[in-house]
Amino acid sequence: MNNKTQNNEAADNDTELELLASQNLRDEWLMLEDIKRGESKTPLEWFIAALAVAFGVWHILTNIFLNEPGLWQNAIHFAGFAFLASTIYSAFGKNKHKPWAIKLDLFYGLLVAASALWVAASESRIYDDTLAVTGQSWQFSPVDWLAGGILLFAALDLSRRVSGWVIPILILLSLSYIMFLGEQLPGVFRSASLPLNDIMFRSLFNDEGMFGILASISSTNITLFMIFGGFLVVSGASDFVIESSKLVAGRIRGGAAFVAVLSSALTGTISGSAIANTASTGVITIPLMKSNGFRGRFAGGVEAAASTGGQLMPPIMGAGAFVMASYTSIPYSTIVAVSVVPAILYFLSVAFIVRIEAVKYKVGDDQDLVIDKGKIISGGLTFILPLTVMIWLLMTGVTPSYAASWAIAALVLVSWATLVIGKILNRDDFKPTVMGLSRIAEAFMFGIRASILTGVLLVAIGIMNNAIVTSGIGNSFSLMIAQWSQGSMVVAIILIGLASLVLGMGLPVTAAYIILAILSAPALAGILADGVIVDQLVQGIADPGKSAMFMLVDSPHVASIATGMTRPEALELMSAIPFEVAITLRPVLVDAEQLTMYLLIAHLIVFWLSQDSNVTPPVCLAAFTAAGIAKSPPMATGFQAWKIAKGLYIVPLMFAYTPLISGSWMEIIQIGFFGLFGIYALNCLVQNYAEGPLKIWHYPLLILGIIGAFLPLNIMANIVGAALITLVVVLTHKGLLKESLTESAA
Q1: Phi, psi dihedrals of residue 192, rounded to the nearest 5°
Q2: How far does CA 72 lie from the centroid of its chain?
Q3: Cα–Cα distances in Å, from 55 out to 46, 223, 399?
Q4: 315: cis peptide before it, omega within 30°?
Q5: Any idea what DSSP says for residue 212?
Q6: What is the average per-residue pLDDT within 603-621?
Q7: Which of 377, 370, 375 is nearest to 246 (CA)?
Q8: Are 482 and 489 in contact (CB under 8 A)?
Q9: What's phi and psi for 454, nearest 5 deg?
Q10: Which of 510, 487, 405, 442 is nearest to 167 (CA)?
Q11: Is the CB of residue 211 less than 8 Å from the CB of residue 78?
């Protein structure tokens, strides 16, 4: 590595630490950058770093070798992250390095951790004490009340520290709703109030509470994948991502922007976080794009849009795939498998915009990017082989946590194997990164540092989850969506999209997805299932047992159920069915496997729509992060990112109206292939440009092409649509070529 590169890396590290300081974080305590620069850590900082490493090792051991009860595992998981969050995310702002501030944060973190362990240890005793007092409510000792109160307060305070005020406000509203507010509300939102000890018990010990399902997702899967991502980054796999992206896309028009798309797609397999993805790859790709002639706001928009797609990219997919697997009871491997083609569609939709921009503004030529072949060879082994091990294990049916743990072990072994290969090859440019003890410790710290946010939030959101399940407001929300949409899938998706945008302004994407999934996914799945019932009504339901279930519906079309009816009549009949009756009808008239698939499709739609808050103004953190790197106006960069990321809205519609998820592999490939033509044509319409300027008569050709390309499984319409779009591309290319020749002659 030359001196210039070392200086640039040192500058990047200094910039990162300055950014951390401005955010009132002590994040450098979980880094070894100061040691690399010849500085020293205090004994306390060494203790916190060692604790983070030990905590990471415990996560591997508890998911493979130890056999702790779920409550204990989740309580220890939260205790560790609560201590780290209170230590790293100081409550004292500019005074964070004052001795008294550090002591108070440490004491508070230890108090919350001790409370979590006390609650886990008290479960059996609380059951015994309550059973001993027959007919009485839950019996808590004064220490139980104190520990529970500290945990509820910590959920509010720590979630505020790591993500702002929105989640604490939602937690307070949720608790108020089941405590006293629900009985004051009218209509479907009215709910009985619960006594305080019942609320405390449910919040702490229910499967839907703080140490329940959501905490298990974090302790068993998410943290291990974050640690695996840390090992990939520290081992040089991230260098491989950048260098291989340069190799693939660096010498084509707009190549620097394509590097951003490719590197963000590959980095998504590591990080699963749009903001982290933007920050890590953007410091390289955004300056490359600007030097390649792209506008700053466009460069930032491309990076933000591509990085947002990182959370859609298998196998990690942020935390979404794990939450989805838990709520739908569909294997994680299945969710990952069906998400591959949609993720490819999204990244190609971003690439299409890059191509159109490069041609339209005549930028992106003559950029010969320097490629470090040694990083490609050494980093490629540590990137590809461990990922292959993990994916192979997932396909065999093991748990994600087991697969991630052994992938980490494989990465360490591969890093040492690269050292042997380097000795054999004896090449100066081949410099593998061997995972010795210091780098392993650094990787654990990286993974644990990245997991603090989800480790805290998923436990805190458990309080809301419990309130939603206990009160039944989730069914009320689903009923509201069903009534407002009147059975229209498009309207339901628009409503959910608006809700996700509002929630995403103050919530991390994973939190927004969880809340929306609890509230709206059942309604969306119900609308999808109702389409099957409508088809049956059109044909006629001859089975007396099934047709009799419609007798409770107040509609003149009930008399025609056995003989069949027109589709408008069937839709009108379905809209008249009460929500409670519809819930009973669906399991009888729709196959259980279909219902499960519709639930998965609904969750995927919600998950994709929840990503839009990263790139949609007025609050779009990934775009704002990119704007900071590009030194472009934040809001203008946000609008560029929103335009570029329109695949976030197109692909969910394909989920709803085509068998992109539920079809055979041949059907999925057909839909995906021709869908690319439609997505490209939509981008042309938005940009008013293809391979050259669009003329007025190109528009009807593109519109007809879009309709034909998107018609599901209609091969003739698909071919005609693709041909029309291709014709416009050829015509605009010839027009631009003719214009260029005329300018040259002049």
Answers
A1: -70, 150
A2: 27
A3: 14, 10, 20
A4: yes
A5: S
A6: 84
A7: 370
A8: no
A9: -70, -35
A10: 510
A11: yes
Residue 263 sits at the vertex; the CA angle it makes with 436 and 245, to the nearest 5 degrees, is: 95
Q: How many CB atoms lie within 10 A of CB 591?
A: 11
Q: Who contacts 104 (Cβ-Cβ below 8 Å, separation ≥6)? A: 91, 92
Six token digits for residue 386: 């461990």
> 276-285, 398-407, 671-680 — which is least confidently predicted?
276-285
Q: Which residue has the higher pLDDT, 519 or 196?
A: 196
How far apart CA 256 and CA 300 sit, in angstroms, is 12
Residues 436-465 as b/e (b if ≥16 CB within 10 A, e otherwise) read: eeebbbbbbbbbbbbbbbbbbbbbbbbbbb
Per-residue pLDDT tens for 481-521?
Answer: 777 877 788 888 888 888 887 777 656 777 788 888 888 88
Q: 3-state DSSP call for residue 25?
A: strand
Phi and psi torsions of 203, nearest 5° = -65, -35
**Sequence-distant (≥ 6) Cβ neighbours of residue 202 within 8 angstroms:** 194, 208, 209, 466, 470
Residue (of 338, 295, 293) closest to 315 by Cα position: 338
| List of residues 6+ apart from 599 with CB closer than 8 A | 328, 330, 521, 522, 525
Q: What is the identity of the amino acid at 21?
A: A
Pair 158, 459: CB distance under 8 Å: no
- Listed residue (622, 19, 605) closest to 350, CA to CA: 622
Residue 350 sits at φ, ψ, to 5 deg, of: -70, -40
Q: With helix as H, strand as E and coil as C, how does 663-725 read?
A: CCHHHHHHHHHHHHHHHHHHHHHHHCECCCECCCCHHHHHHHHHHHHHCCCCHHHHHHHHHHH
Distance CA 230, CA 446 (A): 5
Cα–Cα separations (whole angstroms), residue 19 to 12, 279, 327, 540: 11, 11, 37, 65
CA distance 480 to 492: 10
What does each C-alpha distance from 591 to 259, 475, 557 come to in angstroms? Answer: 45, 22, 24
Does 408 have pLDDT greater than 50? yes
523-574 residue pLDDT tens? 899 889 988 889 888 998 888 888 888 877 788 888 888 888 888 888 888 8
pLDDT value at residue 556: 85
The type of residue at 337 is: A
**The two three-digit tokens of residue 261, written as one number:** 């798309």
689, β-bridge pairs: 693
Close Cβ partners of 554 (under 8 Å, ≥ 6 residues apart): 576
Could you please report the per-residue DSSP string of 63-99?
HHT----HHHHHHHHHHHHHHHHHHHB-SSGGGTTSH
> CA–CA separation, 449 vs 453, rounded Å?
8
* 3 state SS for 235-280: CCHHHHHHHHHHHHHCCCCCHHHHHHHHHHHHHHCCCCCHHHHHHH
* Spatial contact of 444 and 53, defined as CB atoms under 8 Å apart: yes
What are residue 689's phi and psi, to 5 degrees? Answer: -160, 145
C-alpha 671/C-alpha 711 separation (Å) is 8
pLDDT at 12: 40
- 116/673 Cα distance (integer angstroms): 51
Strand pairing partners for 693?
A: 689
3-state helix, strand, coil in the chain (%, to 5): 80, 0, 20
Phi, psi for 693 (deg, rounded to 5): -60, 145
Tokens 């990080």 sit on residue:
271
Q: Tell which phi-psi region holds residue 631, choosing left (phi > 0), alpha (psi between -120 and 50) or beta.
A: left
